[in-house]
Amino acid sequence: MSLTLEEILALPGLEEMRLRAGSQNMHRTVRWSYVAENESIGEWVMGGELVFVTGINHPRDEVNLLQLVDDGHTSGIAGLVILTGSAFIQRIPDSVIARAHAYGLPLIEQPYLLKMVIVTHLIGTALVHMAQTKRSRHDIVAQLLSGDYPSLATARQRASHLQLPLDDSRRLVALRLSAVNVLFDRHPPDEAERRLQHIRQAVQDHLDAWNRALPDALPVIVQGDLFIVLLPEHEGIRLQLAELYQQLHAMIGELALFMGMAGAVQGCAGYRQALNQARQALEVAENLRPATGLCDFNELGVLRLLQAIGDRSVIDAFVQQTLGQLIEPRRKHSHSLIDTLDALLQENGNALKTAERLNLHRNTVTQRIQRIEQHSGQSLDDPLFRMNASVALLVWRMNEAQRQERP
């Protein structure tokens, strides 16, 4: 649990503070508060601060306030608070609000009559309390993941006090940055280490914000080089993780990222086993390198066999040989036969259920089955072909790069 800007504005005693811009980023966490006394703030902040501008010790005209917004955006501050009243800064110029809005920088107006000593005391106290709560929440989940806890009863009692929903059905996902050697091959050691730590922090910050928006969220745990999240179990979890992967992929630069997902765990007593499952799936993902970055432990039976094949081109050739003839580039939906074969195998060859799954007419599915057999030269009654097709489709589903070719 972290203290966000939204939570700060909800603190008792701060009701008079008013958000003027940047509402889309009110989820940002505040590292500490800082009162700006100099003309600019660029060299005085490190990122994550809530910066207060009073105008008492330095005149703040429109040009200077615009500069502070620019500095704050560049420095990565959490938000900017401008004190207004009759004495110093009478009002926040519209141009300042517009620029903060364009940056997505949370801009908050505070009346001078609301004393700074009260505001900073309330925020500082809340930050200390939140930090203690966050440490306790992380401690409980980390102990359950490692198996090093006094008793489940004690863990559950602590979790209840801290409002941690431990025993819901969840899927554990372990994420790891890969290709770290590339950084050290391309850059001097000091620069490579700096970039690595910057990327790791960016990934953790993004995961924290992403995870915090989920229902019944548990804290993200960092264990060695692993980032561990425990997600509520639901049907759209793979799509959710695919979107997360795309977001993280945009910020990791020269590195790669892979994810391993455990089978469903029904209670906190299974967290340790779930972490072991996720590690196994992650190992397979790093070897097979699916374009989605994700490997599911529930699919490890066949994937572990494929992982033993040292030459990835052998796997690609098998997929091409099995499914390649089913691609119809001249048709509008060139992969419709592959989708139909996939659905048909998942429905154990039942054409009626396949039609329902694909929202198609039964006759359309029958016609596609005929084309599948014509193009492949195989019969769907042949158990060997069905087995080969199932394995090839498993690899196909992992290879999102091929699926992106779809209209």
From TrEMBL:
Transmembrane segments: none
Residue span, PucR C-terminal helix-turn-helix domain: 337-394
Domain CdaR GGDEF-like: 151-284
Pfam family, one: GGDEF_2
Taxonomic classification: Bacteria, Pseudomonadati, Pseudomonadota, Gammaproteobacteria, Pseudomonadales
InterPro entries, sorted: CdaR-like_regulators, CdaR_GGDEF, PucR_C-HTH_dom, PucR_C-HTH_sf, PucR_dom
Domain Purine catabolism PurC-like span(s) in chain numbering: 7-126
Superkingdom to which the source organism belongs: Bacteria
Name of the protein in question: PucR family transcriptional regulator
Family: Belongs to the CdaR family.
Organism of derivation: Pseudomonas saxonica
